[in-house]
Amino acid sequence: METKTLPELGYTLHTRKRSIAIIWTAVITITCIQFEVFYFTLHYAAHKKRDKALEVPTTIMLVLSVLTILYRSWLLMKKGSKCRVTGGRWYSMDFFNYTAILGFAIVTAVLSIATADEDVDMRMASIPQAIILYLAGGLLTITAITCSLGLKLPISMSSTPRGSVCKPGVFVVVEDIVAVDGGGGEEFRRAWSARYEASKTFRRMLVQLNWFWGVGSVAVAIVTTVVVYVVNDLNVVFAIDAPFREEPALTILRPFETRNNAWGCKAFYYHAGRGSLAAEDGFQ
């Protein structure tokens, strides 16, 4: 009798711990720490007006965001690209890139309006992180609903072509980030899709994570919005809000994510004879 084996991803995070640490240190510094340092230093120590105090950190974040999006677009569109979406043309970008561009455009518009006058609208200037969470969480929640209903995609989502049954948004996010930013390339995109199609347990895990991150992100965004527009002291609003600029749900959701990943690993790598959940898929 032929033994079925689960498709290998050919990718591990164990050898990339240093890179992950460097990237997240940079993200936290750029989106959180430098905002706090520059704003309070320039506004209270250098006695600059709020618009000038926010000008420096906002410019730094926006410039670096543009450079990041351009670099990522170049990786996807350059001649001989190895991380392009499966079946994509040279000018094709992945779904994550399109979403990043949309989010950047919205945040830039909001910050421009908030800081247009000398009397800065601090509440509006503190809302971009909630906007990103509404966008990301909303997309994840929508894909969770469409996936549960078995609806077909009206547009392509990275390597999932238009007309295919919708997959969880988490599936697309992981595919795009690992393939491009993580260096997994087209091989990872194909392996990731093969794993999804082969394993019922894997699909179930992604659906659960998709619901949790989608609904969780929207919930955190709502709480953040309430804080921004209810708290009277604007400095408190800015100080409390800044640490949540990038991924406010990370700490809250980490225990659930860890538990699910551990459950998923058992399903993927334990032998069926040891009572593995992989037995549900018929893999050994």
Automatic annotation (TrEMBL):
<feature type="transmembrane region" description="Helical">
    <location>
        <begin position="21"/>
        <end position="42"/>
    </location>
</feature>
<feature type="transmembrane region" description="Helical">
    <location>
        <begin position="131"/>
        <end position="151"/>
    </location>
</feature>
<feature type="transmembrane region" description="Helical">
    <location>
        <begin position="54"/>
        <end position="74"/>
    </location>
</feature>
<feature type="transmembrane region" description="Helical">
    <location>
        <begin position="95"/>
        <end position="116"/>
    </location>
</feature>
<keyword id="KW-0472">Membrane</keyword>
<keyword id="KW-0812">Transmembrane</keyword>
<keyword id="KW-1133">Transmembrane helix</keyword>
<feature type="transmembrane region" description="Helical">
    <location>
        <begin position="209"/>
        <end position="231"/>
    </location>
</feature>
<protein>
    <submittedName>
        <fullName>Uncharacterized protein</fullName>
    </submittedName>
</protein>
